[in-house]
Amino acid sequence: VVLEEYKKCVFKKYRINGFKKNIKVVTYKDDQELDEILDIGITEKFKLIMFTSDLHKGVKFYERYQRYSIFNCSESNYTFYKYVNQDEIRQIEEKEMFDKNILITSTAMDCGLNICDNNVNHIIVHDIHDLDVIIQCVGRKRFKDSGDYLVLYIPDINNVQIGGYIAQSIKHMARDNFLPKMLRIRHKKNK
Questions:
Q1: What 3-state class would DSSP assign to 102?
Q2: Which site among 38, 39, 89, 174 is 20 to 30 Å from 32 CA-CA?
Q3: What whole-number distance in Å separates Cα of residue 15 and Cα of residue 160?
Q4: Mean pLDDT over residues 56-85, rounded?
Q5: Range 121-142 average pLDDT
Q6: Which one, of 167, 105, 185, lies nearest residue 138 by Cα?
Q7: What's the pLDDT band for 176 if we cut at 50, 70, 90?
Q8: 50-68 burial string, b = 16+ CB within 10 Å, else e?
Q9: Distance of CA 1 to the CA centre of its chain
């Protein structure tokens, strides 16, 4: 019953106008593979942005790669803001680029700040599952010309995880009164 109502949902279709963007999507399995991606980025001297909603892990990556990285999160995040170098963030805001190899940031950077640097060609999405947020994060990288490209790294998720995200989304929509009242009643009866 819930699945029938779910099929009636209207999905957003995104279209990017302008020149054709060269975007390659690569999946990674776990934090060990993420470390390998970061290591390769440092040894091959390419620049990347890592967006994460798990700031505990974000700080661990930052501490591991501190010499090569910048950390950013919201000023209101009292637990993790102490790792932010305000001068480096101010420089990013002014120049729309950064000097180090890696920018590790929360999704606080997903709106209003652009990175206009042809050398930033890699974006890692870590522990973010909301498509709108992912699109906003990727949109921080501005394509300057048709030769610009992007490699987007996303976690490889299995069917059990997908089912969990769907169930969690249904629960949130029901709680926030996005689903019809009848659907919530049917969902409770089926439990």
A1: strand
A2: 89
A3: 29
A4: 95
A5: 87
A6: 105
A7: low
A8: bbbeebebbbebbeebeeb
A9: 32
